[in-house]
Amino acid sequence: MAVALEVGRETAPVTPLGNRAYTDPAFFRAELDRLWGKSWVCLGFAHEVPEPGHVHPVSLGGKPLLLVRDHAGTLRVFWNVCRHRGMQLVSAPERLAGVIRCPYHSWCYALEGALKVTPHVGGPGLNIDPAIDRAVLGLVPVRTAEWLGCVFVDLSGAAPSFAEHVAPLARRWADFADRPLHAGGTDCSFALEVGTNWKLAVENYCESYHLPWVHPGLNSYSRLEDHYTIIEAGFAGQGTLAYRPLLAADGGRLPAFTGLPETWTEGAEYVALYPNLLLGVHKDHTFALRLEPLAADRTREHVAIWFADPAALQPQHAGLRQRLAALWREVFEEDIGVVEGMQQGRHADAFDGGVFSPVMDAATAAFHGWITKRYRETGLHGD
Ligand code: FES
Ligand SMILES: [Fe+2]
């Protein structure tokens, strides 16, 4: 099979970003407000609130948000803040029996957001007050979308529609996009804290150039030459023509999606959906790394793995599930040294952004093309 190299409209020559875009705390804050705050970004995973009543607090660059599964089963996202005096409402994931109760003065909100109870607000024993109009003091909702098991938000409420945002990748991965996915248990969900700027995690994920030296294990069966570059509007990454599912001692394997085209028999793809979601799809599982920016030089990577078939969650597959999770964890941990090393390198006055190999770094260059355009649109300068 020929190596497919797709060239999208974001491959125009770009100048690599300078050090300041990775190291300057003020630039980091501005980037969060102007780029992250005005784009669709991944906030979490749908299975983090599996049942009605589940609430899951999340921080997006220090901004407190709350994933909620309401009584009807709809996933909602609100600002995690009480409309009274601004107390953070929920500090840890839990399953609520009824309402969301503020721990400060016990104002209570329905899972759908409406303010229901305001105890003693008009004086002892008076739970209403003419000055407090509950009807306009519900939780503040955030524009939300769900796709491939992931939850996205647009804090500005003004970005183009999510359907438009995800359309190119949804088209490319139509074989996967509308299928039910089955989240693995706790062993398939972990987080890594990494001493790097979030962009270096994206850049490293996009390219397979580093495979022989950073991932010798992976490279032994999915070699550099088995990979091809993917560049489209809104995402970039790589694919492999040599995906080999794990085998159990008895030759068993995890069940695959049914009816997939033949290209996925040994094919798998890995792309970064800008800005912060690193995805992988295979015939028997998908995974995601959600990048949570903590500081200019710190990023938390939240990993989740989903399976193609609910049978994969049965006890007889526990060994394969754990091996798969361990394999990906090892690969992602192997990347930590290089993204942290690049972060350190960006304190070198002599480093001018470096150079891109037109062949091996094309996906990284495409990401820089995308982000440079976003910086320009929002008045940020990354040089
Ligand atoms: S701050 Fe929430 S009830 Fe007062
Ligand atoms: Fe890697």
- Supply Rg: 22 Å
- Say which CATH homologous superfamily of the largest domain is assigned: Naphthalene 1,2-dioxygenase Alpha Subunit, Chain A, domain 1
> What is the tally of beta strands?
18
| SS strand fraction | 15-25%
Assign a percent range to the helix content.
10-25%
Low-confidence stretches: 1-11
What is the CATH level 1 assignment of the largest domain? Alpha Beta
Number of domains: 2
What's the CATH topology name of the largest domain? Naphthalene 1,2-dioxygenase Alpha Subunit, Chain A, domain 1
CATH architecture call of the largest domain: Alpha-Beta Complex
Mean pLDDT metric: 93
Present as ligands are: FE2/S2 (inorganic) cluster, fe (ii) ion
Plain-language structure description:
With 383 residues, this protein is of the alpha+beta class. It has nine helices and 18 strands. Strands 11, 12, 13, 14, 15, 16, 17 and 18 form an eight-stranded antiparallel sheet that branches. It has a four-stranded antiparallel sheet with strand order 4-3-2-5, with no helix packed on it. It has a three-stranded antiparallel sheet with strand order 1-10-9, with no helix packed on it. The longest helix is centred in the last third of the chain and has 28 residues. It is globular. The N terminus is likely disordered. The site of FE2/S2 (inorganic) cluster has 8 residues, from loops.
